[in-house]
Amino acid sequence: MLWDAVAACLPFQTLCPWAVKALQCSTTSCRRLVGIVICTSFQRHQENVNLTLAANFGYLLRNFMEQLGMSTTEFQLSREPSSFAWERTIVVIESAGQQGTGTFIRVHNKRFILTCAHVVGQNIETVNCRAADREFQSEVIWCNPDSDKPFDLALLTAPQDVPERCCVRLARSPATLGQMVYNAGFPYYVNFSFRHDFNPSIFQGRIIKCDTGAIMSDGSVQAGQSGGPMFDQNGCILGVCVSNIKLDDVVYPNINTAIPICDIRNTLQQFARTNDLNVLSNLVASPDVHRVWSLEMPPIRSKL
Ligand SMILES: *[C@@H]1O[C@H](CO)[C@@H](O)[C@H](O)[C@H]1NC(C)=O
Ligand SMILES: *[C@@H]1O[C@H](CO)[C@@H](O)[C@H](O)[C@H]1NC(C)=O
């Protein structure tokens, strides 16, 4: 186990021959110790975060070896580049000291960033963004002016040279009960002063409820994932994650609500075609949808 862990951090040539032999396990049976679990929930900014946190074993080992006076110059602690395309489609957004997530979307060949209004905040013109390969400022095209009314959405400009493969397509069909989904974002603090801090997470779940103007899933969503994408199995954006459930200060990250893309698709397409900002006022939802998001009971239409 220890040697597997060492191998995870050191280039092979720095190990002695017998160690290299011991490490030649088949890729399917080889398990490497990458972290040691510290806790499964913690607090940040007075909010509970329900997330398994582990200490990076590579850093622990380097520290240990330094204390033994061993050379650690060959340690490779950088994160392995991910082959998952989804990482390149999301951005961390910093606005007025808050952080959230956004998604590069492509609508009629135009590129935008879709996020939540509460991530951007009111009366904000530009926000700071960090994507997998760049940092940039993005302008707020539209942000729901009434933070109490759904949809909790904001549309931002995206750099026009963002490659097509980094832009997500809008899902064509509505979510269905039991459908597998993937909620992505930055559930933990991203340090904007540290250029290399780009560590998004993704959680698998299922659609557990489809309502008018709202879909719920059981794939974990934490505070920094606000505005993040809910992907379907084809990698299209099916929803924009808005909130989880919080009762008496206890957060339930596995019950969460998202804005269905199908309900805003037409408006986004119309805006991309016309560039008419007035079109975006259609992103403020109907009173029926208000009721769903404020968790009010629907009016009783007939009593038996
Ligand atoms: C989330 O974390 C808090 C502590 O930070 C804990 O009290 C609570 O039980 C956890 N909730 C769930 C659903 O695990
Ligand atoms: C953020 O990164 C900067 C630059 O690496 C570092 O000096 C600072 O201590 C970091 N802040 C936190 C809270 O980790």
* CATH fold topology of the largest domain: Thrombin, subunit H
Q: Taking strands numbered 1, 2, ... along the chain, how are they ordered across the largest sheet?
A: 5-6-7-10-9-8
Number of domains: 2
CA-atom Rg in angstroms: 22 Å
Order of helices and strands: HHEEEEHEEEHEEEEEEEEEHH
Strand content: 25-35%
Q: Which residues form runs of ≥5 with pLDDT under 50? A: 1-26
Percent range of helical residues: 10-25%
Question: In whole angstroms, how far apart are the ends?
Answer: 66 Å
Major sheet description = 6 strands, antiparallel, barrel
Q: Class of the largest domain in CATH?
A: Mainly Beta
Number of strands: 16
- Class derived from helix and strand content: alpha+beta
Bound molecules: 2-acetamido-2-deoxy-beta-D-glucopyranose
Look at the structure and give the mean pLDDT: 85
CATH architecture of the largest domain: Beta Barrel
The tally of helices reads 6
Shape category: globular
GO cellular component, one term: peroxisome
Organism: Drosophila mauritiana
Main location: other
Signal peptide: 1-22
Write up what this structure looks like.
The chain is an alpha+beta fold and 304 residues long. The chain has two domains: 66 residues, no CATH class; 204 residues, Thrombin, subunit H. 15% of the residues lie in helices and 33% in strands. It is built from six helices and 16 strands. The strands form four sheets. It has a six-stranded antiparallel beta barrel. Strands 11-12-13-16-15-14 form a six-stranded antiparallel barrel. It has a two-stranded antiparallel ribbon with strand order 1-4. The chain is globular and about 75 Å long. The N terminus is likely disordered. The site of one 2-acetamido-2-deoxy-beta-D-glucopyranose has 3 residues, from loops. One 2-acetamido-2-deoxy-beta-D-glucopyranose (NAG) binds next to strand 2 and strand 16. Keywords: Hydrolase, Peroxisome, Protease, Serine protease, Signal. It holds the Pfam family Trypsin_2. GO terms for molecular function: serine-type endopeptidase activity. Its EC number is 3.4.21.-. One of its GO terms (cellular component) is peroxisome.
